[in-house]
C-alpha cells in the first residue's frame, strides 16, 4: 500500500483496552501494586497460570507471569492492548512503517486481535471488537 492510500483512509480511533505487565516475582508485584496504587487484584486462570487483573487510574491492568508471557529482558515488560475500529487498516500501517505482524489474526470472545512489534521490538496488541 502506498503513502497516498494510507493518508486517505478513515482516521483510526484508539482507546486503551488493557496494560499487561510480565512479571517474574508475581507475589511481590501483586503486593506492590495493591499497596502503592490501592487496587485489589482478581485472580484469573489462563492456560494453567494465574493472572491478576485490576484497574489503575482508570486503565485495566493485568499482571502476567513472565513464564507465560515469555518476555525477554531486552523487550518491553509492559504491553498495551488497543481497541481499534479497523484491524486490517492497522496491519497495513504497521507493515508500511517498519513494524512486524507477529502471527495471524486470532479470534477472541469479544472479537479478533493481532500482535505487532514496533521498530524497537516492543509488542502491541490491537483488538477489533465485534459490534
Describe the protein.
With 131 residues, the chain is α+β, with helices and mostly antiparallel strands. It has one domain: Roll (2,3-Dihydroxybiphenyl 1,2-Dioxygenase, domain 1). Strand 7 and strand 8 form a beta hairpin.
Quaternary organisation = single chain
User: Which structural category do the helix and sheet elements fall into?
Assistant: alpha+beta
* Individual helix count: 4
Number of domains: 1
Total number of strands: 8
For the termini, the CA-CA separation is 27 Å
Provide the CATH topology. 2,3-Dihydroxybiphenyl 1,2-Dioxygenase, domain 1
Which tags fit this structure?
alpha+beta, eight-stranded mixed β-sheet, 2,3-Dihydroxybiphenyl 1,2-Dioxygenase, domain 1, 8 strands, elongated, 4 helices, 131 residues, 45% strand
Task: Write a concise synopsis of the structure shown.
This protein has 131 residues and is α+β, with helices and mostly antiparallel strands.
Amino acid at each position: 500500500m502506498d503513502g497516498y492510500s494510507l493518508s486517505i483512509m478513515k482516521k483510526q480511533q484508539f482507546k486503551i483496552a488493557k496494560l499487561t505487565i510480565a512479571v517474574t516475582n508475581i507475589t511481590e508485584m501483586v503486593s506492590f501494586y495493591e499497596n502503592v496504587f490501592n487496587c485489589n487484584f482478581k485472580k484469573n486462570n489462563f492456560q494453567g497460570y494465574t493472572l491478576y487483573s485490576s484497574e489503575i487510574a482508570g486503565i485495566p491492568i493485568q499482571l502476567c507471569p513472565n513464564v507465560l508471557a515469555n518476555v525477554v529482558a531486552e523487550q518491553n515488560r509492559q504491553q498495551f492492548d488497543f481497541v481499534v475500529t479497523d484491524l486490517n487498516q492497522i496491519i497495513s500501517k504497521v507493515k508500511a512503517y517498519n513494524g512486524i505482524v507477529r502471527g495471524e489474526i486470532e479470534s477472541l470472545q469479544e472479537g479478533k486481535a493481532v500482535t505487532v512489534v514496533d521498530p524497537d521490538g516492543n509488542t502491541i496488541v490491537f483488538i477489533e471488537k465485534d459490534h
